[in-house]
Amino acid sequence: MITRKNQALLSFLSIRAIVNGTDIYPLPDSKPVVVTVNENNPSIVITDGFHFTKPVELVFHHLNTYYFKVVCIIDDMQLLAGSLLLVVLYLLGFFTGVLILKLISFLPILYFLFLYYINRKDFIQITPV
């Protein structure tokens, strides 16, 4: 069973689970999806089309059900704090006329772009529940 954690960034993305490279299951927001496999050692990859997780290979020795949660590396609090920092620093720079404050205000955007584009392998993660 795979559940998508309700996060702001993940709600914008179309997240899908790919089983054995052939079967594709869309993952709706905060609703569990039951994926039934008939063979042992299936591999599961989560993607949004641009980001891919590392394949997770499931081995059914003693367990017959695995529970996973799909999370994003940027959580809601980081997104809120970065947005708040951007607004506060830019307004301080705008009202005081200090150019360096305006330039520093773009650091959260650069950080989020780094995580989104450069750190692609870890942007979407599968975590066991």
Structure explained in plain terms:
With 129 residues, this protein is of the alpha+beta class. It has one domain (2-128). 34% of the residues lie in helices and 22% in strands. The strands form 2 sheets. A 4-stranded antiparallel beta sheet has the order 3-2-4-5, with no helix packed on it. The protein has a 3-stranded mixed beta sheet with strand order 1-6-7, with no helix packed on it. β4 (43-47) and β5 form a beta hairpin. α2 packs antiparallel against α4. It starts with a strand and ends with a strand. The model has no long low-confidence stretch (mean pLDDT 88).
Nutshell version of this structure?
With 129 residues, the protein is α+β, with helices and mostly antiparallel strands. The chain has helices at 8-12, 76-96, 99-104, 107-118, and strands at residues 2-4, 16-19, 23-26, 43-47, 56-57, 68-72, 124-128. The protein has a four-stranded antiparallel sheet with strand order 3-2-4-5, with no helix packed on it. A three-stranded mixed sheet has the order 1-6-7, with no helix packed on it.
Q: What does the average pLDDT come to?
A: 88
- What spatial order of strands do you see in the largest sheet? 3-2-4-5
Element order: H for helix, E for strand: EHEEEEEHHHE
- Low-confidence blocks of residues: none
| Envelope shape | elongated
Tally of separate helices: 4
Largest sheet: 4 strands, antiparallel
Key structural traits:
four-stranded antiparallel sheet; 4 helices; alpha+beta; elongated; single chain; three-stranded mixed sheet; 34% helix; 129 residues; 7 strands
